Amino acid sequence: MPFQPIAATFSHRAVAALAVAGALGIASAIAANNSVTGEKKTNEFQTVAPYAILIDGGTGATMFEKGADTPVPPSSLAKLMTAELVFKALTEGKIKLEDEFLVSEDAWRRGGGPSRTSSMFAELNSRVKVKDLISAVIIQSANDACIVLAQGIAGNETAWAIRMNARAKELGMTNSSFANSTGLPDKNMKVSVRDLSKLALHIIRTYPQYYSIYGEKEFTWNNIRQFNRNPLLNLGIGADGMKTGFTGDGGYGLVGSAVQNGWRLIVVVNGLKGEKERADEGKRLLEWGFKAFESRLLFAEGQFIGDAKVFGGASGSVPLVSKGAVNIMVQRNVSERVIARVVYTGPVPAPIEQGQTIAKLRISRGDNVVLETPLQAAESVGTGSMTSRAVDAVSEFFVNIIRTSTSKL
């Protein structure tokens, strides 16, 4: 019968587990199940925000979360996805900063002055440059600018929403559904704070030439001067982005980012009751993160982390390494329960090339995955002899029978 890969999760060998334990200063490593554990003794941060997450801007590792995967109305935080699509189009050369788009009657009525929502107050039937529309979206949270961009690039806002959802899927935003370019109330518009943190990190990493706009304090259009709505920018905590939002059904939300001593953190809070509460909780989370955490090395670049079983190869397994160093954020002077696992679909069919992505290293605190990074083959594995491949096929056949029988118990 033909070989069929089976999804499986394998913890890495005890030597790797002990390396993690030593790096973190964790109380003990349980080699019996090849995981890293230690007694958790921590005073968990408390926030009144019903939905919150704090991540490390370097690794993407989660430092704190609360209701992070619950889809909720994003309000103007959805404009981050509109901005991402515009940045992508610019980077790919599909549009230019000097291109001009028409302010349609629809954009003017639903997002401009007549809408009584946040607006750049672009004049009906005028043409506005892409660079000015971007500044209006980011600094003024202008709904008319969002609609003009959506119509100018995609033809209409429905087509734009389809692009938003497709892009969210590409970026791994698994709890997101977009219905318009603005974040104005819509029953089909829901985004989790974890997804927003992923989006924010992606924008910061991928579009540094445009990210600086998020830190600009004001923008004037049509002789109307408006100030950036992000309260964190004026609090002296190193904040340089990103977005605020509010709707009646979603409450007050914030995506913020700050840098201290070269270290970036990203915070997302949503569902709060007022502007002050939103600013206070965003600031508290960032300040706590900078004060309470430090980076620890788990594995150096090129260090053996684990191995994966190989099917039909000259070797029965392949060693795994990370492309770069693997670090995790840990609380200072606190012992935490941490589990490190190598996860892959296997056994992996030969031949395997050195550097080929084989698996993921998944680091968890309790039930929460805080870091996931790809693992590559440390060496090539050629195709085995006819005899060895036959032995592997027979072995896999019986393993499949055992797995199937076990699943039926």
Gap between N and C termini: 24 Å
Query: What is the CATH top level name of the largest domain?
Result: Alpha Beta
Please bin the fraction of helical residues.
25-40%
Number of strands: 22
Biggest sheet, open or closed, and with what strands and sense?
7 strands, mixed
Query: From the alpha-carbon coordinates, what is the Rg to the nearest angstrom?
Result: 25 Å
Class inferred from helices and paired strands? alpha+beta
Count the DSSP helices: 10
Looking at the structure, the CATH topology of the largest domain is Beta-lactamase
Strand content: 25-35%
In round numbers, the mean pLDDT is 85
The CATH H-level homologous superfamily of the largest domain: DD-peptidase/beta-lactamase superfamily
Q: What are the low-pLDDT stretches, counting only 5+ consecutive residues below 50?
A: 1-43, 389-394, 396-409
Strand order of the largest sheet: 1-19-21-22-17-16-20
Q: What CATH architecture of the largest domain would you give?
A: 3-Layer(aba) Sandwich
Number of domains: 2
Dominant shape: globular
